[in-house]
Amino acid sequence: MKRKATNTLMRSLFDEPSDEVQSGLLGATAEKLQRLDTNEALRERLLPFCRLGYGGIWHDPIGHHRVGVLDATNGADVKSIMGDEKAKLVISDPPYNVVVGHGTSSSLSKINLQNYLEFTERWVCNSIDIMNADAHLYIWIGADYRDGFQPLADVIILMRKFKELAPRNLITLRNQRGYGTQHNWMWVRQELLYYVKGNPTFNVEAEYTDIPKILRGYYKVVNGARTENLQRSKSQFIRAGNVWVDLQQVFYRMEENTPGCYAQKPLKAMERIMRSASNEGDLVADFFAHSGTTLIAGERLGRKVYTFDIDPVFAEISIRRLENYRQTGKTGWQWRSPFTEVTYAKRGAT
Question: What is the CATH number of domain 39-344?
């Protein structure tokens, strides 16, 4: 029985997931596309199947979205996709300058901190330029405790330079997957910085979760009557606040999983941000498309999304994810590969 389970597990790593894996009896992933940011050879194999090269922009033939292969630090690149339009909301998930899993490639590398901050300053400046007079800016960011908590603290200090932006909050998302050792607390947090330009509207209804209120307490006298918080509440559900424990990091058992895209953000998190900071028909910009989650959120919520990535493979995945959603109603591929043109054998791409 043990040998059979082992053989099934090995098969699942490189072929179509077996029934045992799909039913969750085995705990291993069965993704049919390996992690792209640490697999340069695989990325090179996928490039011929990408419809855009550097400078290219895909105009959605059905909706109003745009996807490009552009550089977030290049003002001319940003202008080429935005034109004269202004975004009501900018969501950015840039590289964190944190080495994860001891991997390094052109897509995943740790650079000098000063160079990273200069990179950050350039793309933030470009973001401000294309933001509406009243707009929201969200920045996903990481911290490496092994290196002085870079770059979280450094980016927060850098953001003080931008007088057009006012800090609103520091949000923490609890990840499903974490990392750590037996000698430290497991790291399961993901930080999200929230700034505003001008005085944009915040839709507080978007902050309510699916978690019902069950605790009584916090008594307060209102109009001469002693009330508790459940009586005063406008909703039977609790508000998310700035610690999001009701969302989990995307992992391989979820439909929205996009194989090859490590650390993609939960669709529900992007939709929460979008609902709080925009209305139907508004323009949302994302300078780091990666797995295309912002694009899918915009499609589902009736927003117009202009997004781009400097890597043609991630831009292609974003386009394919939108096309796949429209064709199947599925938000991702779960185990299956976005690139059906390429198959994989036991020792890698073939």
Answer: 3.40.50.150
Instruction: Name the pTM for this structure.
Output: 0.84
Q: Residue 277: which residues within 8 A CB-CB, separation 6 or more?
A: 88, 89, 136, 138, 200, 202, 203
Residue-wise pLDDT for 99-144, tens only, equals 765 554 445 568 899 999 999 999 999 999 999 999 999 999 999 8
User: Where are the domains positioned within the chain?
Assistant: 39-344
